[in-house]
Amino acid sequence: MGEGKGKEDEKINPYSCACAIVASMISIIFGYETGVMSGALIFIEEDLKINDLQIQVLAGIINFCALVGALSAGRTADYIGRRYTICSAAIIFLLGSLLMAFAPTYAVLLTGRCVAGIGVGFALVIAPVYSAEISAASSRGILASLPELGISIGILSGYISNYLLASLPLNIGWRVMFAIAAAPSLGLAIGILGMPESPRWLVMQGRLGDAKRVLLKVSNTKEEAESRLQDIKLAAGIDPNCTDDFVRLNHNTRGQGVWKELLLRPTPPVRWMLLAAIGIHFFEHATGIEAVVLYSPRIFKKAGVTTKKKLLLATIGVGVTKLIFIFSSTFFIDRSGRRKLLQISVGGMIVALLGLGFALTIVHQSHNQKVVWALWLSIATCYLYVMFFSIGLAPVTWVYSSEIFPLKLRAQGASIGVAVNRATNATVSMTFLSLVNAITIGGAFFLFAGMSVLAWIFFFFFLPETKGRSLEEMEEVFTRSKKSRNVDTELQSQNSVVRVP
C-alpha cells in the first residue's frame, strides 16, 4: 500500500510546507550560532586573551554537548511529542545565547556554549524528523531538507552579523553577536505551539482521530490522507480498517525498549539502516566542512588575506555559496534522487579539496611571500568545495537519516546518527588547528580529500535509493535491495539454463 501518486498528490501541500518552515527555524538559530562564532573568535581571542587550545575547546565544545542533546532528543520526542521537543530546544537555545552574551569570563562563555550545544542536539534530531513525518513521499525530500537550508541561512546571517558589528567596541561587539540569537529563540518557542503534532507520533499514541485531522490538513486530497493514515496504522500494528478515534495499544508508545531493537537485537534491515545513518553522518563532517565553516577566516589568513574586514568579507562568500547551492539542491533531491546527488557532490568535493590543499601548500612553502595566484586559487577552491558539499552531502544527510527508520525507531534512530554527526564535528573543530600545526594546512585538506574518497565508496555500496518511497516502505527498501541482487542472479542463471540446447 503506498501513498497517492496522482498529479494532485505530487504537489507540495502549503500547510505541510508552512509546518516544515516553522520547524526549520530552530536550524536557522543553530546555524547562526555556528556562523557567528567563526568571526566572534577573532574578537574573543583579543578581548579575553585566550590561546589556540582554548579557542579550539570553545569552538568544538558545543558539539560534545550536542551529543548529550541528540541522545536525549529521540526519547524526549517519543515521550512528549515532536512539537514540544522543538519548543524545548528553542528555550535551551535562548538560555545559552543569553549566557554567552553576558559572559564576564571565559568559563561562563564556555558554559553558555555548552547549554546551547544541548539545544543543538535537540534541533538536529527533531527538525528533520518532524518535517519528514509531516510531509508526503513525493515532497519529503524538499521539506526534510529545509532544516539544512535553515542552517545555511543561519550561518550566512552569523557571518553578516560578524561583518556589521565588527566596528563596535571590542568587549561589546561579540556579546551583541550572541545576544541577537535570543529573540528568534523566544519567537520559535511560542510559534511552534501553533503548529500541529506529527500524525505519525499521534498514531503511536493511539490518537487516530487527531492524526486523521492533521493528515487532512497536510494532504492535498481526502484520498491521499486516508491512504497515508492506513499506511501509518499498518506500520504501528493497528488494523488499517479501524475507524475508532482512539485505540489503546498493547506495546509501549513512548520509546521504551527501542535501544534494544536498534543496538542489541536489530533485524537485518534495521542493522543496515543504522549502518547507513551512522556512515552518512560520520562522513558529512569527516570530509572537513566544519574546518571551512568555522575556521574560514584562519584559512583565508593563511592564504594571504590580511585585514579583519577582508577576512570577514571573504568568509561571507562561504555563507553565500552554501546558501545558494543548498537552496538549489532542494529542487533536485526529489527528482534526481539521493544517491546520484551524493555521488556528484562527493566527487566534486574530492577535486576541490585537492585543489585547496595544493594552493595552501604553495602559499605555505612561499615563506610569507605573497603568491597572488595561489591566494585566488585557495579562495576559489574553498568556495567550490562548499558548493559541491551543499548540493548533495549537506541536505541528503538529514533527509536520508530522518526517513529510513521504521516508525517506532525513527526518532531514536535519528538521534544515534546525530550523535555520531556531533562527535565527528567536535573532533574536527577541536583538532583542526592542532592538525594544521602538525601536518600543515595544505596537508589537512589533503587528508579531508582522502576521507571524501572513502565517503564516495561507502555511499556507492551501502546506501540504497529512497526517492519516492513512503516512510512505511523503508524496511522493504532495505530488505529488497539485498534480495533483488540474489533474484537477478537466479534469473540470469535460469535464462542461461534455458539457452542450453
From TrEMBL:
It is a multi-pass membrane protein. Pfam families: Sugar_tr. Keywords: Membrane, Sugar transport, Symport, Transmembrane, Transmembrane helix, Transport. It comes from the Eukaryota. GO terms for cellular component: membrane. Residues 19-467 form the Major facilitator superfamily (MFS) profile domain. InterPro entries: MFS_dom, MFS_sugar_transport-like, MFS_trans_sf, Myo-inositol_Transporter, Sugar/inositol_transpt, Sugar_transporter_CS. Its main location: membrane. The chain crosses the membrane at residues 12-33, 53-72, 84-103, 109-130, 142-160, 172-195, 311-332, 344-363, 375-400, 438-463. One of its GO terms (molecular function) is symporter activity. It is found in: Membrane. PROSITE patterns: MFS (PS50850), SUGAR_TRANSPORT_1 (PS00216), SUGAR_TRANSPORT_2 (PS00217). The keyword Cytoplasm does not apply. Belongs to the major facilitator superfamily. Sugar transporter (TC 2.A.1.1) family. PANTHER family: PROTON MYO-INOSITOL COTRANSPORTER (PTHR48020), SUGAR TRANSPORTER (PTHR48020:SF49). NCBIfam families: SP. This is Major facilitator superfamily (MFS) profile domain-containing protein. It comes from Lactuca virosa.
